[in-house]
Structure formats: C-alpha cells, structure tokens
Amino acid sequence: MNYLRAVRFFSLINILLWTTSCTDIKVLGNRADLTLDQPEAHFSILQINDTYKIEGLENGSIGGFARLRTLRKQLEDAGDQVLLLHGGDILFPSVMSKYLKGDGMIKILNLMDGHESDFDDRMIVVFGNHEFDDPDPGVLLGRIAQSDFAWISSNVRYRSSGKSSGSPFSERLSNAHEVLIKDINGLKVGLFGITLDSQQPPYVSFDYDLEVRRKVISKAIADLKAKGAIVIIALTHQTLDQDQWLAHEYPEINLIIGGHEHFYIEQQVGKTWITKADADIQSAVLHDVRVLTDGSVETRHRKIEVSSKLEKDARVDAEVSKQLTRLTEELSNKNKVLNQVLGYTRYLLEGVEPAVRGRETALGNFLTDVIREHMKTDIAFTNGGGIRMNDNIPPGPITVYDMEGLFYYDNGLVSFELSGAQLMEVLKNSVSKSHLGDGRFLQVSGLRFKYLAMKSNDDYSYSIAPADVEVKLRGNSAYQPLDINKKYRVATNDFIWEKGFTDGYNLFAKGAGKSSPTRLDNGTAVSFRKTVEEAISKLPDKTVSHQIEGRIIREEQ
User: Residue 512: what pLDDT?
Assistant: First the structure.
C-alpha cells in the first residue's frame, strides 16, 4: 500500500468510527493518531471474543453479528486487508446452543465474509473452554467440519475413546490447525492458539500444565519463524494473568488477541499488547499492524462500540431471524413458548457478566430477595457465575426466553447456618477477583457491606472489615452491625453448597471433604427458576421494581 493510499484509508476509518459510534468511540492508551511513517507492510485485525447470542443483547439493540458483518465490509471496502480473529467461546453456552447444538451459530459465522459457501480465508477462531461443553464429541467435530473458516489451537488435542493421549485436531479436520501462516500484502503473519483447561471432557486433552505449555508455545513460535513469519500473533482463550505471563515469557510475540473475560481489556507487557473485547460483540477491537522499514513491528488499536448506530447487514440479519425461528419451533416442541410474557420490569435488569460478576445489580437484588423470602432466612446470596443469561432485560416484558437464559442451569435452593465470622470469609472470597469478572462474586440480600480495593501495578487486593458489614435480620426493617459470634440463617443455590470450594469457598465442599454446613431445609432442593417465576406472578401487576440500593459498595484506595 503506498503512502497516499494509507492516508486515504485512515481518513475513511476515522470517518467510519465517528459515524458508527459517535462519542462512544474511545481511543485508549494515548494512541489517538494511527497514521505512521510509510511502512513496508500493513494490515488490520478486527477482534471479537465470547459470542453467545447471534442477535446481540437487549433484544438485538446492541452488538450482534449482523452489525459485525457491516463493520467488516466497510473496512474492506475502504481497501484494507482485514483479519477477523475470534478469541473463543462460540458454540456454548446459550439458549440457542442448548437446543440447536451450535448449528445456528456456525451458520451465522459462515456469512461473515458475505458468502454462504465460500471458505473465509481471513477468519480464524481459537477454541474457548465452552467449545467442549457437550459430552458428545460428534457435536464439536461436526461444528468444526461445518465451519467455512479456520480453527486454531496449539495445545488442545482430540482423544479417541480409550486412549490416554490425544492427537492434533488437524489430523482429523482440514480447517483445524496448530499454527497458521497468512500471507497479507506480501507479509507472512504467523498465528498460534492457546486454550485453558477448565473444561476437561474425556475426548479432549490439554497441554496446559506450565512446563508442557512452555514446550508447546516454544515449538509453535519456532515453527512460525521457520516458515518465515515476520509478525507473530497469539490467539488465546485464558485468564488475563496467563496472557500477561505469556507476553512476559515470550516477548517475540507481537500481539495477544484474547478471550475468556467478558469485558474490554487492554494491557501492555513490554512491547506486547494484550486486548480483549466485550462479549457478544458489544464492542470490537480494531488493530493496525505495521512492519516498518527497519523490520520492527508496531501494533496500535482502538475499541469500537458496536451500537445501534451501526446498521445491520440485511443478509446476516435475515439468517439471524431464521435461526431464532428454528429456536422458537424447537422450544414449542417442548411445550415452551419462547416469547411468552411472564411479567414485566420497571427498570433495567442487568444480567451481563461484567455487572453480575463485579458489582451490585438490580437483577441480583431481585433474585436474592426471592431466595431469602422463599427460604425464610436472614440472608441470601447467589453467585454471579450462576446468572448465565449474559444479557440485560430492558424495562418492559420478561419472557420465557429471558428465563431460559437466566436459568441455563436450573439449580435448587438450600438453607443452613453460618456464623458472622464465616460470613466474613464468604464476603472476602466473593470480592477477591472482582476485577477479573470471576463467577464467585455474590449478589446479596439481607446484607450490605463495603470493601476496599487496592491497586498495585496491574494487580488488585481487597479488604473488608467486620465494622463495614451490616445484616437485616428476618422480620426487621433496619440493618444492624454484623456480630461475628452470632449464627445467621442463610440461603443460596445448591451449586454453592455442593461445589463452592471450586470457587474458593472452602466452607462448601460437600463432594470433596463433605464440609458444607448442615442443611436446614428438608433436603429436597426446590427449583430456583420455578421459585422466581412464581414470585413474579405474585407481584403487583407482575412487575419487578428492584433497583440498585447500596448493598455492595466498592471503595478505591
């Protein structure tokens, strides 16, 4: 690309970004000017990750694949070479994948280049941990084979029945790769993929233990260099701290395109940028990658808010409607009416994961109030990780579709006693990873507390003092200070009671040590979903009126 063409391209980009997102566009990290000296080679990357709802959020008013297709087309029409990279979590979990086994999602992704049958040579996806949710290996293999784009992973292997070790997916599927070289504008761009091992079905093995992972990454980078790669990109689905480790250990990586966290992240380690977009294409990240005349690689990026200001691509939008109709029919076969109105909400009920896993929400207040009232306890809490809808319910109807997403896993409700001292341990663990959007974060009822967040470099630590915790005993209208010696009646979902230790709640380990507190209920856990639906039906005008009221207050040092 010559210099005048580059200037013209970035002028078009600036116009596009302003018109599609207006003042929502944020150019972060002091990188407002993307034009550089004349490069030897240049290309762009459009990054997304963690996509579950093909239509986008809030009834399709935010994000979604139809808007992504429009954005990609506008970038390509401006004359640039664009790689579309996905940081994993495509197939599961969502209401649609629960019933259509990921088929609807792949049909939409196959349209991202504007062609229904052509192979998309500029789209690459890394395995996310949720790709392996279905216990049937044929589902995953079938969805990869169905994909008109490339999958990549350097550390995930397919394990046949009865075999202790696996083999690369590339030995079974032509569009699966351990490493990949793309020739863009005469520039060899090398990619490898890394996926964390949080899901471990019997048909998959992971090279993720630290020393084995080091060998895998070193080999992948060596293979890419041997094939002439000038730019090296890691496409990852793992926690931010592991991406930071990757950048620190392997500074020759020019860019880490990540997933797993569901909110926008940018971190720089040395000269390597790590970026992650908001889930469900609420945002995308646009990267400018340049190799200068001295052979050095420079990457710059900006966040693009994918809002209603960006028009939907008509063809993709039509396919979205088709797949939603399929979902409606599938639920109808199970005597469920997808758009049936169960009640209403007066205010926004936030169910997106960065909210329910990081701060008090109106939805969390409502759900925990329902638990507390039904179980007749002093306190109730539920983990943000159990609120699976990853969407918001705008003011207006609450539908069966909302309930299907909210209760993707329908847990039961349990009750027991905890001392004030034990509650302190629970709350400390709840906030311990709130900056990462971890699922252990609790929404609460009958409690209010504040906690202190202390940041050192790029890491956080947290503290809570007993004096900053108050309890509203059942039947009382006022809060009173927490008594660390007093016993309180507590209710939550049965996942926390049985397996809370997996999220750091060492009090709750029924399966591993059987240390969970003795239950006060009759031992038959009632359906969380059914309890909530019944509670809505009994509200005046069937209308939820909960708002944020200061139950959880975060203070920064």
Answer: 67
- The Cα angle at residue 414 between residues 498 and 371, in degrees rounded to 5: 125
Pairing of strands 150-152, 176-177: parallel
Contact present, 227 and 188 (Cβ < 8 Å): yes
Q: List all residues 6 or more positions away from 137 whose beta carbon is below 8 Å from its beta carbon.
A: 158, 201, 203, 204
Q: For residue 123, is pLDDT > 60? A: yes
* Calpha distance 448→514 (Å, rounded): 29
Q: DSSP letters of 221-288?
A: HHHHHHTT-SEEEEEEES-HHHHHHHHHH-TT--EEE--SSSS-EEEEETTEEEEEPPGGGTEEEEEE
Is the pLDDT at 283 greater than 70, yes or no?
Answer: yes
> SS3 of 419, please?
strand
Q: Are 256 and 234 in contact (CB under 8 A)?
A: yes
Q: Estimate to the nearest angstrom the gap between the alpha carbon of 369 and the chain centroid.
A: 26
Helix (H, G, I), strand (E, B) or coil at 429: helix
Measure CA 536 to chain center. 28
Q: Residue 535 pLDDT more than 70?
A: yes
Q: Could you give the CA distance from residue 223 to residue 218 in angstroms, rounded to a whole number?
A: 9
Instruction: Give dist(CA 279, CA 285) in Å, integer.
Output: 12
Residues 6+ apart with CB under 8 A from 3: 38
Which pLDDT does position 162 carry in this prediction? 60
The mean pLDDT of the chain is 90
C-alpha to C-alpha distance for 375 and 456, rounded to whole angstroms: 41
Q: Which comes out higher in pLDDT, residue 5 or 179? A: 179
Q: Which residue in 409, 381, 390 sits closest to 350, CA to CA?
A: 390
For residues 219 and 493, what is the distance between their CA atoms, to the nearest angstrom? 44
For residue 1, what pLDDT is reported? Answer: 41
Strands in 265-269's sheet, in edge-to-edge order, are 179-184, 187-195, 231-237, 255-257, 272-276, 265-269
Place of tokens 């908001």: 278
Residue 453 three-state SS: strand
Both tokens of 243, joined, read: 């991406």
Q: What is the pLDDT of residue 163?
A: 66
Q: What are phi and psi of 234, to 5 degrees?
A: -100, 120
* pLDDT one-digit tens code per residue, 79-91: 888 999 999 999 9
